[in-house]
Amino acid sequence: MAIVTGKKNQWRVWAAHAFLIALLCVILFPLLAVISISLRPGNFATGSLIPTEISLEHWKLALGMSYTGADGKEVQPPFPVLLWLWNSIKIATISSIFIVALSTTAAYAFARFKFKYKPAYLNGMLLLEMFPRVLALVAIFAIFERLGAYVPWLGIETHAAVIVAYLGGVATHIWTIKGYFETIPQEIEENARVDGATLWQTFHRVLLPMAVPILMVVFVLAFIGTIIEYPIASILLREEPNLTLAVGSKYYLQDQKFLWGDFAAAAVLSGLPITLVFLFAQKWIVSGLTSGGVKG
Amino acid sequence: MSAAAISSPLVRGSRGTAPSWLSHAITAFAAIAALYLVFRIYAAGQPLWALGALILFSIAIAIYATNWSIASRYTFPGLAAIFLFIALPLLFTMQIGFTNYSSNHLLTFDRATAYLLEQTTTDEASVHEFSLLEYSPGLQAVFLTNPKTNEKFSTSITLDATEPIRVAPTTNAYPDSFQLRERIALRNKLMRLQFALPNGDVLSYASLREFAKVTPVWKQNPDGSLTRAEDGAVFKPNDKVGYYENASGDKLSPGYTVNVGFANYARMINDENFRAPFISIFIWTMVFALLSVFFVTAVGTTLAVILNWEALKGATIYRTLLFLPYAVPGFISILVFKGLFNQNFGEINTILSALFGIKPAWFADPLLAKVMLLIVNVWLGFPYIMVLCTGLIKSIPADLYEASAIAGAGPLTNFFKITLPLIIKPLAPLLVGVFAFNFNNFVLIALLTDGRPDFLNTNVPAGTNDILVSYTYRIAFKDSGSDFGLAAAISTVVFFMVAIMALFHLRMMKANQGK
Predict the structure, then answer these.
(1) CB within 8 Å: A138 and B328
(2) What angle do helix axes A212-227 and A260-295 make, rounded to 10 degrees?
(3) Which of A104, A113, B62, B213 could form a disulfide with B123 if both were Cys (CB 3.0 to 4.6 A apart)?
(4) Contact B477 A141 (CB under 8 A)
(5) pTM of the entire predicted model
(6) Residue A237 C-alpha, separation from nearest chain B C-alpha, in angstroms
């Protein structure tokens, strides 16, 4: 807007900067505070935002090492954070691989074939996805509780049950991949068919290599979605060594046992990688959000 | 997935290259495996689940073994996953809502009956200590001593005997050659042994060192009722309440799951103690979702407008930093706030008391807890709206603002007369989505306050800032009782509310597209 830029406008720019900086201070305060708290000695000490005394005790505990306190007492890690992180990564990776596989094949059919009731399937999927799975927790619990009586490795307290329970969340990913497949010209696959490739060969030798970028994106999105999932994991996993990070972290902040400093170190340790992955994927997430806004 | 009509030129002559005998063999093998699995489920006493599995496997085999529908081969795994893990749990939840499934009624009728029939009593007068002596490999001598009468019996046995073994009186006593650990290892064999005394009593395994007359507590009658062996009291299964009951209404634990019709729903309406908190939780759920949408939208749009202002340098940096709350995993940032808001040593109260000398009780005061939930929720949610609005504002033609600048309009006029009217239409369906999300924002409540502080004088614990989903979670998984049936009934009610929101959302989306 290259129109009038008078003195009044200049004043407004400064006001906007001041407002945004003030707001940023408030918005970023929790994130900066938690880093500072993780470096502060003790679980109860309150101090300035910039710690006056740096102590690595909480970080040692978060990394699974014990440390000797000022009174000579050895302090053991309160919770196995690294084990929880590993559980989370394991569950998220395996379920994301399955989610990508399930949604890629379905998206292929929705993008390339014409069949009866296709729009109904596509919209029905989206409609179902709107029902939060929190509503079905009782049923999910009952299903796996009964299943576990006959198939022990799929019962309550198993990671396999959590992975299986996550597999339903494919509808949005099917839409995303379908949109991408539709931008790839169909002629390439038709040429492969003319050269004698079977349908399956054209799919996994011709189309899939061209779709690797979107598969990566969907994998990252599914990974983030499952690693931060709380409700289902919290009903299927109860024993300490089985927990995922999302379920276990809350045990740091119980009323009787408030391990504020230890929590802060564990939170930074485990939150940072997930945040970085999210920021790395931000470009696609944002384009997904906005394209959803424009075309639905 | 019926009658797929494929018209794509891709699909002509789409048979695979595998020889037909191989595919037939694989099909036959898969069919047999599937049938076996179905049979196992049926034999486990779950005929409905067996039927469902049978239908699912039949569809799968029809799709992969025939040329019926090529497209289905690709859609089936994904659609089956959606059906199994999203649609089925929702339907199953509705069904559980009509039962009394809870910690007192956890078992099916058959499993509860089997449990009761397994209960035994030990006749104290017949307790015999027993010792084992291995005198040659695989051959043991057993000595039974009644400590009350000092009668002794013995015989030689093999541990694999199936009939009751006759024992004869003896006067000798022998030391035990088996250690406790060995007895534990032999326990499964010992439990199957029975000894017949000369007086006709049959002794069975009672503990690691004792055999005694062990009799079942319950005897099943042909009409399905149970008779207590001790006093002949008769308990009949009462399928209305899911318990075995006698004539005076005494109940046997455990109960079993039965259909109770609309009893759970009637409770929501009729039970005064339950209805009052239920209604206030419902109102708070609406208020929470509406206020969240309002504040998130206000903050998000304001920031989007400011950051789209061309005169402002460094907008990208601001935007990236302001996006951070959305990038940090929710379970971590919510717990960080839980610590920061702590009344006694949280950083927020430290600052407030330094500046104003106040220390608000964020977690103990119902109103402050609600304020805190909204503050945290706005922090978590505004970047989403900010990003959405940025995209929408970018698509507004610049000449509109040029025209308004010539007319001498200020930024506020621009916002309310140009920007807002143009973005509200595409934004509206997304705001319905945000409303639906917050209506069910379970993670925030569960991790920050757990719904506390609780209402007083309720028979089902309920929190003043619980929303419907966190309330059902508490009923089902947290507080004693684990009333899954009631929780499922409330979930079903929420389910219909979400369905209305979802239809509303789709309508608005369609209206926008049709434009």
Answers:
(1) no
(2) 130
(3) B213
(4) yes
(5) 0.82
(6) 12
